[in-house]
Amino acid sequence: MRAFDLRPIFEALQNHPIGQHPWAQALRNMAEQAGVGAQRSGETLVPEEADSETFTPPVDIFSTERSYILHFALPGAKKEDVGVNFDSDKGVLNVAGVVYRRGDEEFLKTLTTSERKVGMFERAVKLPPGDEEKEEVDGDAITAKLEDGVLVVTVPKIEKDWTEVKRVDIE
To answer: How many CB atoms sit inside 10 A of residue 73's CB?
Structure first.
C-alpha cells in the first residue's frame, strides 16, 4: 500500500495565516516524525533538482517580558548567506537565504542518501504570534546572531509605562 503524499497540503498551510498557529507546526512535526508526506531514506533516489527547491526552516518562538526571541534551525548556514528583514507595516519578520551542501563537485557526486535540507529557504513570522495580545515591537532594535546552526533573532517589545487615553468630544 502506498502512503499519501501530504507535502502539498503542508506547503499550502505554511503560506496561509493558519499555518503559523502553534498546533499547525505541531502537526507538521508529527507528520515529519512519522514519515508521512516526506521521502524516507533509501526508498527512492532524490532528484538532482531537489536541492533547488525552497524549504521552510522550523522556528521556536519565545515571548519574554521584554522581547520576542526566535530560534530558526539552519544547520550548515553561513551568516553571509542569511538575511533578516522586518516589515513594520505588516508586523512580519522575514528570514531568507540559502544553505549549501559542502564539498567539491566530485565529492558531491558520491552522495547516496540526502536527508538534510539544503537550498534556498524562506520563513515569515507574524509578530506578535498567534492569539497573543497586540504589542508594539521596536523594529529598529532587532538583533540576529547565527551560532551552532541556530539563528537567534531578538525582537524587543516597546515598553509602555502609560496608557494613552484619547478624549472624545461630544457634539
So the answer is: 13
Kind of pairing, strands 92-99 and 119-126? antiparallel
pLDDT tens digits, residue range 39-81? Answer: 333 332 233 444 447 899 999 999 999 999 999 999 989 999 9
Residue 96 contacts residue 83 (beta carbons within 8 Å): yes
The Cα–Cα gap between 78 and 152 comes to 13
125-145 pLDDT, tens digit each:
998 777 666 668 888 899 999
Report the distance separating Cα 77 and Cα 31, nearest Å: 25
| Residue 137: partners with Cβ closer than 8 Å, 6 or more residues away | 68, 86, 88, 91, 127, 128, 155, 156, 157, 158
Q: What strands, in cross-sheet order, belong to the sheet with 59-63?
A: 59-63, 67-73, 150-156, 143-147
* Bond into 128 cis (ω within 30): yes
What cell does 19 get?
499555518
Query: What pTM was computed for the model?
Result: 0.61
